[in-house]
Protein 1
Amino acid sequence: MGCHCNPRDDVGGRQAEETCAASTPLLRENVAGHLLFGMGSRDVNTVIVNGRIAMENRTFPWDVAPVYAEAQRAAQSLWRRMDSL
């Protein structure tokens, strides 16, 4: 397991300076397979945006409860509108 950092990934509409993803080592023989099939959001460990840590060790450095509460309210509103169609 290692940390492979990809500079300048687009993360949520912002340009991340580094996105660190834990994976098996990238080798010439397996890089295409990693990129096409093996790597996804579940592999991301740390994200740095504009020099600030946005996520570290798969944990956000702020209270996520208000974000999840707002997302739940938005989802409920969406489902109510969908049910009325």
Protein 2
Amino acid sequence: MIAAARARAANIFYRPDHFKVDLFPLTDDPLQQSQLRRARETGQSARQWEDMRGIVQTSGTRLDLGYLREWSANLRLAIELERLLDSVPPRN
């Protein structure tokens, strides 16, 4: 990969499932090591979290909460989904 050879971040996209993987070269830099540890602990980036909050805020009552709760349970993400839903103020 060109990006790996140049020690730059890259992405892999799988279009049928709209799945994206972010690749980052690992160095011995203490800041990067700290960021990697934090990303592993939280499971998502702050930007991803804010993106999800924005979707919930914008979609409001149009969200199919039954579907989201079913799949979050299947994926063992039910706690994270409820935390997300609780973090967004209800729309009037």
Protein 3
Amino acid sequence: MDELFKHRNMSEAVFQDVNLRRSMFRNVNLSETTIRNANLRNVSIDASDIAGLTIQGFDIAALIKAEIKRRDLDRRKLRMSDLVDPAGVFVP
């Protein structure tokens, strides 16, 4: 079933025993949403503002930040270590 929900306010809606397999969500606001007993197998979340997301009690935003930092060591060079001396940004 292909059904398009566009420009709809569905805030405070309850979805129970609903199959959303292979669904696509674009430009949606899921803030303050609770998901319980969900199958999130093979789910992809891209280009998102993730803040305050916890899964099984783990702060996911902190894990993402740590992984980005681990993968991209040059990001550290982009941060000013001393706000008084902006020249400290450039590492020889």
Protein 4
Amino acid sequence: MTTRFITGRATRKDRSLKFAMKNYVVTATLVVASAIPAFAGSGAYYVGLRLGGRSCTIMTHTPNPHRYKMMGKYGTRADANKAIAGMSECH
């Protein structure tokens, strides 16, 4: 450390510590960024009836209107399953 104050330049140890801290910060940022989408779900479940068929599917996104007829939007997956059980079009 005293060498740095005398010469005005960072020592090899200072540079390696700085590099290690940058790696730590970048790694922590990537971990947090990859976890955010898992918590960002809208919490909505959609029931879609496949066009031309008699099968319903639970989706976490809005059904494509060219492939599915939207049968409803529900707050939980359990509610969506109950709704499918009561829909005659899905059986």
